[in-house]
Amino acid sequence: MFFNTIALTTALLAGSSMAEIIWDGRFTETSAAEIGKWSWENQVGAYQYYIHGSGATTDYINISPDYVNPADKSSSDGARITVDGTSSWNGQTMMRTELIPSTKAAINKGKKFYHFSLKRAAENAPDATAEHQVAFFESHFTELKYGVDGSDGKLQWMTDGKSQFDMDFDADVWHNVAYGIDFDAKTVEFYHSTGADEQGL
User: Fold this and answer.
1) Do residues 50 and 40 make contact, with C-beta atoms less than 8 angstroms apart?
2) pLDDT at residue 193 above 50?
3) Under a CB-based contact definition with an 8 Å cutoff, are residues 146 and 155 in contact?
4) Least packed by Cβ within 10 Å: which of 89, 99, 143, 172?
5) Buried b (16+ CB within 10 A) or exposed e, 42-56
6) Is residue 38 part of a domain?
7) Is this prediction's pTM over 0.70?
8) How far apart are CA 126 and CA 124, in angstroms?
9) Which CA distances in Å does 177 have to 4, 10, 51, 87, 180?
10) How confident is the model at residue 90 (pLDDT cuts 50, 70, 90)?
11) How far does the signal peptide extend, from start to end residue (predicted)?
């Protein structure tokens, strides 16, 4: 089982029309080797990287211009995230490769917008009979999921475990997503487009 060629070209914006970036997860100056240096004792770079299998960082995370959304003119690189049979973390049966924002910024207060783009490849496509938690918060109050639940090959946006919106998850189609989260009001807005199209609510 591989989840191959998912570009997490990401940024986190404060909630205003001229928002400042308060956490920048774009891979413009990041390498898999740098991500692999992160530890609780050495919290460097934009991402926490501790939930993964026993292999080398490059077994699970690869950074390259080949993995960036061509419509994203602000990023030079994207990341290919791989989940395979070695991706067991702490002996769990669920296979996991996770990148988590590493920041002291207040990314869970007020109104914030989480932006990211992703696609899947035709080769080593995700198995629709297995559950894939693609972009989520630990509490799963909002997330993108794929597979296992009768969604017929759709990528689903879910809140509190209920499907709110689904989209075809065809190979080599870029999905541009933003979560507009008001942590005070406990609401989530979902923005989506494909390719170079503008995002809509």
Assistant:
1) yes
2) yes
3) yes
4) 172
5) eeebbbbbeebbeee
6) yes
7) yes
8) 7
9) 18, 10, 23, 26, 10
10) confident
11) 1-19
Tens-digit pLDDT profile for residues 34-56:
898 999 999 888 899 998 888 99
5 in a structural domain: no
Question: How many domains is the chain partitioned into structurally?
Answer: 1
Spatial separation of the C-alpha atoms in residues 177 and 192, rounded to whole Å: 5
Cα–Cα distance, 103 to 177 (Å, whole number): 21
- pLDDT score of 99 more than 80: yes
Q: Is residue 4 part of a domain?
A: no
Cα separation, 110 vs 118, whole angstroms: 26
At a CB cut-off of 8 Å and minimum separation 6, what does 2 contact? Answer: 82, 83, 84, 124, 125, 126
CB atoms within 10 A of CB 93: 5
**Taking Cα atoms as reference points, which of 7, 95, 116, 20 lies closest to residue 52?**
95
Nearest to 3 by CA among 140, 150, 158, 122: 122
Report the share of the chain in percent with pLDDT over 70. 88
The owner of tokens 């986190």 is 12
* Structure confidence by residue, pLDDT tens digits, 142-187: 999 988 766 677 899 999 989 999 999 999 999 999 999 999 999 9
Does the residue 74 lie in any domain?
yes
CA distance 36 to 73: 26
